[in-house]
Amino acid sequence: MDTRKIAVIDYGMGNLRSVLNALHQVGAEGVLVSDPESVSAYRKIILPGVGAFNEAITNLNRLGMAQALGEAKNNGVPLLGICLGMQLMCKISEEDGLHQGLGWIDAAVRRFPEQPGLKVPHIGWNDLSFRRSHYLVEGLPPHPDVYFVHSYRVECADPSDVLATCDYGGEFTAIFARENVMGIQFHPEKSQAIGLRILKNYVEFAPC
């Protein structure tokens, strides 16, 4: 099995081409996968996403993709969520009501608080603070700048799940990692050399 072929889940939401292009730049082949029966053929899987949480989780369930991804997770396949894809891995989201996520990480997705001078959505470059070492962030500088676009943030119940944080109206989880489940709130495909290094680390070091 070619472990440099990465499944990029297509469930009708997300800027898929930019993810495929970024994977190509780090020497991997991204393959769009929309058939849940094809998921088991891959040993590395990226769940991207842009848009509303409820529509996204509804699509994953309707297509049978949520079950297929859950089976891959249980089989130890390294899964990487990007932006909305990260949020979908959480227990719940408060976006437009209360919605159940995939439940892989004990975390809640909540809107940025209303604060004077705090613009929502959070758009632009902000630096990360790392909480621990991990192969996903190997070789990065201590406080790298990355590119965010989001109105809702992840709040992890277990601090040990947090790999990196960002401060925007308060600290929030920018990267989480628990066993073979990883999530990135920012867009690595838009974060230039830093984002490409993270994707390269995933491609080369994620155990499969």
Summarize the structure in words:
It is a single chain. The chain is α/β, with parallel strands linked by helices and 208 residues long. The chain has a single domain (5-205), classed as 3-Layer(aba) Sandwich (Rossmann fold). It contains 5 helices and 14 strands. It has helices at residues 16-25, 53-62, 65-74, 84-88, 192-205, and strands at residues 5-9, 29-33, 45-47, 79-82, 90-93, 99-100, 105-111, 122-127, 129-130, 145-150, 152-156, 162-167, 171-178, 181-184. The strands form 3 sheets. It has an 8-stranded mixed β-sheet with strand order 2-1-3-4-14-13-12-9, sandwiched between helices. The chain has a 4-stranded mixed β-sheet with strand order 6-5-7-11. A two-stranded antiparallel ribbon has the order 8-10. Strand 12 and strand 13 form a beta hairpin.
Largest sheet features: 8 strands, mixed
* Outline: globular
Question: Total number of helical segments?
Answer: 5
* Cα Rg: 16 Å
Neighbour order of strands in the largest sheet: 2-1-3-4-14-13-12-9
Order of helices and strands: EHEEHHEHEEEEEEEEEEH
Query: How many separate structural domains?
Result: 1
The CATH superfamily appears as: Class I glutamine amidotransferase (GATase) domain
Number of strands: 14
Q: Could you tell me the strand content as a percent range?
A: 25-35%
Q: Give the name of the CATH architecture.
A: 3-Layer(aba) Sandwich
For the record, the CATH class is: Alpha Beta
Distance between the termini: 10 Å
Instruction: Provide the low-confidence segments as ranges.
Output: none
Q: Please, what is the average pLDDT? A: 96
* Helix share bin: 10-25%
Secondary-structure content class: alpha/beta
